[in-house]
Amino acid sequence: MHVYLPIAEISVNVFLVLGMGGMIGVLSGVFGVGGGFLMTPLLIFMGVPPAVSVATSANQIVASSVSGVIAHWRRGNVDFKMGLVLLVGGFFGSSAGVALFAVLRRFGQIDLVINLSYVIFLGTIGLLMLHESVRAILRSRKPTGRRSKLHQHNWLHGLPLKMRFRRSKLYISALLPLGIGFSVGVLTALMGVGGGFVMVPAMIYLLGMPTGVVVGTSLFQIIFVTANVTFLQALNTQTVDVVLAITLLVGAVIGAQFGTQIGAKLKGEQLRSLLALMVLGVCIKLAVDLVATPVDLYSLDFHVIHE
């Protein structure tokens, strides 16, 4: 059974899209990520234009994140105060990112920027996370091994405007989560991601938050930032495909509930190593596609932008 996507201008198998949404929902519940880092490339592989993939993925992430947050909130694993500070930075970052997205699209460079951003960010973060998680697993298996702190205090922790986050047991400068939120907001707009693959390691290693609290708090922030991106993308670039978004949404909401149950049974270092492997897998596929000879050497773009 196929359905036509009016903005993407292609027909896709509705059951395949539902399955993709369900898989991303599971990832959202397990890892605390919106799943856009995987959904956007998968849509591109299906033939959906990169600009439409980015904007539509941001919309779908809202649903899977809401479902995941509810499940984590019931377990008491959401630091709402930290989430609100991250959210302020995320709103400013996502607004700036959508403006940059529109400029790059006007000059015809948005597809290249999207693909290069994925290769660079996913490759770097995936390698760092895999290295750290493997070391943590090896240390935990030593009989006399002692677990070291995931973060070290440096000049960043001496910044002003300190706030106390009781749920995370932290007393740090509010500038740190504001900066992280802003950066993730920009990435959400440019890459169609919730930013969890950046947010989660940053909250663990820079802020020093407990892994159990990080997942739910990350999803809480992702909800509102991706909603802001979806609204601005629909208003400014008209690249949100509603039919595709709704189909993905149905699968994602169901999948997220199963994901939270799976995530509760895994240790923190196991979660990070699995996420790192998935991030690296997507990165390698995108890198190969960038350098491989395309099937069609020439393509025509009929989209005309009127000033």
UniProtKB/TrEMBL annotation:
Keywords: Cell membrane, Membrane, Transmembrane, Transmembrane helix
Family stated for the protein in its record: Belongs to the 4-toluene sulfonate uptake permease (TSUP) (TC 2.A.102) family.
Membrane topology summary: Multi-pass membrane protein
Lineage: Bacteria, Pseudomonadati, Pseudomonadota, Alphaproteobacteria, Rhodospirillales
Protein name: Probable membrane transporter protein
GO cellular component, one term: plasma membrane
Originating organism: Thalassobaculum fulvum
Pfam families attached to this UniProt entry: TauE
Major location (coarse): membrane
Compartments, record wording: Cell membrane; Membrane
